[in-house]
UniProtKB/TrEMBL annotation:
It holds the Pfam family AA_permease. GO terms for cellular component: membrane. This is Lysine transport protein. It is a multi-pass membrane protein. It comes from the Bacteria. InterPro entries: AA-permease/SLC12A_dom, Amino_acid_permease_CS, APC_YAT. GO terms for molecular function: amino acid transmembrane transporter activity. PANTHER family: AMINO ACID PERMEASE, GENERAL AMINO-ACID PERMEASE GAP1. It is found in: Membrane. Residues 20-471 form the Amino acid permease/ SLC12A domain.
Length: 486
C-alpha cells in the first residue's frame, strides 16, 4: 500500500513540464486585475504612481519567486511554502500558513465561479446566474479530477489566450500612441502623462493604495511553488519558469499599464469605474474601441471569461494540493492524503469543492455571510508571500550554519539577503496599507472587514503553538533533508 502511494506521487510528478509551470505561474498573475482593475489604479495614483506601484510589486514578486525557486529546486514538495515554513521557521507558522492558504483559494474559487455569472450576463442577461456558476464549477471539478496533466494542459491553453490578447493590445496601443492607428489626428505621445496633476496624483498614500491593487493582480505567481512537487524535472524547469515569468511580468504588466495611461487620461470617468468589473469600460475594451475594432467588448469579455475560469481552475488545484500536503504532514485529517490511480487527491478535491460550493451558495442565500468569507480571505495571499520570504531567509541561514556550500543548490536566489528582506518590508507595507483611510479615521467596521485575515492567521498560529508547544527552530536543528516528511 505504501509502495502504491509512492507510485501515485511519482506518476503525478512526471506530468507537469516546463511549459506548464511557466504558463501556470504567468496565467495565475494575468487576470481581471490587469484586464479590468488596472484602470482604477491609474485613476487613483495617476500614470506615474500606477507604474511605480506595479514596478515595485513586480520586483517584490520576482524576489519571492527566486526565493521560492531556491527552496523548491532543493526540496520539491507539493505543499511548498507551508511545508518550508514548518521546517525552517516554526511548525506553528507552517500550520497557520497552510490552512490560511487553503481557505483563501477555496473562497477565491467561489468568488471566481460567481464572477462567471456576471461575465456571462453580458451575452445572456435573462438566464439565472447560478446556472452558469454551477456549470463552470462542475467543469473545473472534472478537469481537476481527471489528472494533473489535464489541469496543466487546460491552464496552458487558457494562459495562451490571455497572453495573445495582451500582445495584440500592446501592438495596437503603441501604434495608437504613435498616431499610426486610432484616428487621423496628431499622435497622442505622452501628453496624458502631463495633464492635470499627472504623472503623480494623490502622492504617497495614493501609490500605497495602488500597491494593494497591484499586489492582488500579481497573486497566483506563487503557484509555481505548489506545482514544484509535481514537476518532471524541478531542478531545471523551475529556474526556467521563474526567469520567463519575470520578463513576461515586466513585458505584460508594466507595458500594458504604460499603454493604458498614455491613451486614456487618468481623469477619464471610465477608468474610475473600471474597478466595478464592467467589461464595457475595461481599459482594454476602451483602447480597442478607439481604433474601431468591431465587437471589442465581446472579444474582451470572452478573454475575461477565460481569465476567471483559469483563476478558478488554479484555485481548485492549489487548495487541493495544499490540503493534501498538510495531511501528509499530519496537520490535516489523514483522509485527505489519499490519491487515486491518476495521482489526484480526491478527498482533498471534494472538500475544496464543497467549501467553494457552500461559499457560492451563501452569495445567493446570505449575502452578508458571503461578504464575511470573502473579506476573511482578503489578505491571505500577502501573508503567504511574507511567509515565503521569512522561510527562505531562515533556509539560507540554516544551510550555511550546518556546513553546506551554495554550490550544492541547483538554483541560487538573487541578491540574498536583500531580496527576501525587501520582500518582507514590501509585504508588511502592503498588508498595513490595505485600508489607510479606515486606519486614519478609526473606522472599526471597515478595519474589521479589510484586515480580518490577520487576526484569523494569528488565531491559527497561536492555537497550534499553545497546543503543541512549538518554538522557533534553532538554525543548527533546521531539517534540510531532501526527503519529504510523512
Amino acid at each position: 500500500m505504501a509502495q502504491q502511494h509512492i507510485e501515485h506521487e511519482q506518476g503525478v510528478k512526471r506530468e507537469l513540464k516546463t511549459r506548464h509551470l511557466s504558463m501556470i505561474a504567468l496565467g495565475g498573475s494575468i487576470g481581471t486585475g490587469l484586464f479590468v482593475a488596472s484602470g482604477s489604479a491609474i485613476s487613483k495614483a495617476g500614470p506615474g504612481g500606477a507604474l511605480i506601484a506595479y514596478i515595485g510589486i513586480g520586483l517584490m514578486v520576482y524576489f519571492l519567486m527566486t526565493s521560492l525557486g531556491e527552496m523548491a529546486t532543493y526540496i520539491p514538495v507539493s505543499g511548498s511554502f507551508a511545508t518550508y515554513a514548518g521546517r525552517f521557521v516554526d511548525p506553528a507558522l507552517g500550520f497557520a500558513m497552510g490552512w490560511n492558504y487553503w481557505f483563501n483559494w477555496a473562497i477565491t474559487l467561489a468568488v471566481d465561479v460567481s464572477t462567471t455569472a456576471i461575465v456571462m450576463h453580458f451575452w445572456l442577461p435573462d438566464v439565472p446566474g447560478w446556472i452558469f456558476s454551477l456549470f463552470f464549477l462542475l467543469v473545473i471539478f472534472i478537469i481537476n479530477i481527471l489528472s494533473v496533466k489535464s489541469f496543466g494542459e487546460t491552464e496552458f491553453w487558457l494562459s495562451i489566450i490571455k497572453v495573445v490578447t495582451v500582445i495584440v493590445f500592446l501592438i495596437v496601443g503603441f501604434l495608437t500612441i504613435l498616431g499610426i492607428m486610432g484616428g487621423h489626428g496628431p499622435a497622442i505621445g505622452l501628453h496624458n502623462f502631463t495633464i492635470g496633476k499627472a504623472p503623480f496624483v494623490g502622492g504617497i498614500p495614493a501609490i500605497l493604495s495602488v500597491f494593494v491593487v497591484a499586489g492582488f493582480s500579481f497573486q497566483g505567481t506563487e503557484l509555481i511553488g505548489i506545482t514544484a512537487g509535481e514537476s518532471a524535472t524541478p531542478e531545471t524547469s523551475i529556474p526556467k519558469a521563474i526567469k520567463q515569468v519575470f520578463w513576461r511580468i515586466i513585458l505584460f504588466y508594466i507595458l500594458a499599464i504604460f499603454v493604458i495611461a498614455a491613451i486614456l487620461p487618468y481623469t477619464s470617468k471610465d477608468l474610475l469605474g473600471s474597478s466595478a468589473g464592467d467589461v464595457a469600460i475595461s481599459p482594454f475594451t476602451l483602447v480597442f474601441k478607439r481604433v474601431g475594432l468591431a465587437g471589442a467588448a465581446s472579444i474582451v469579455n470572452a478573454v475575461i471569461l477565460t481569465s476567471v475560469i483559469s483563476a478558478a481552475n488554479s484555485g481548485m488545484y492549489a487548495s487541493t494540493r495544499m490540503l493534501w500536503a498538510m495531511s501528509k504532514q499530519k496537520i490535516a485529517p489523514k483522509v485527505f492524503s489519499h490519491v487515486n490511480r491518476h495521482g489526484v487527491p480526491v478527498a482533498a478535491l471534494l472538500m475544496t469543492t464543497v467549501v467553494g460550493l457552500f461559499t457560492f451558495l451563501t452569495s445567493i442565500w446570505g449575502p452578508q455571510i458571503y461578504l464575511f468569507l470573502v473579506s476573511a480571505s482578503g489578505l491571505t495571499g500577502f501573508i503567504a508571500w511574507l511567509g515565503i520570504a521569512i522561510s527562505h531567509y531562515r533556509f539560507r541561514k540554516a544551510f550555511i550554519r550546518q556546513g553546506h556550500h551554495l554550490s550544492e543548490l541547483h538554483y541560487h536566489a538573487k541578491l540574498f539577503p536583500v531580496g527576501p528582506i525587501l520582500a518582507m518590508v514590501l509585504g508588511i507595507l502592503v498588508i498595513v496599507g490595505q485600508d489607510l483611510h479606515a486606519v486614519q479615521n478609526f473606522d472599526w467596521q471597515a478595519l474589521g472587514i479589510s484586515y480580518m485575515s490577520v487576526p484569523l492567521f494569528i488565531i491559527l498560529f497561536v492555537y497550534y503553538k499553545l497546543r503543541h508547544k512549538t518554538h522557533l527552530i534553532p538554525l543548527d536543528q533546521v531539517d534540510l533533508s531532501k526527503a519529504d516528511q510523512d
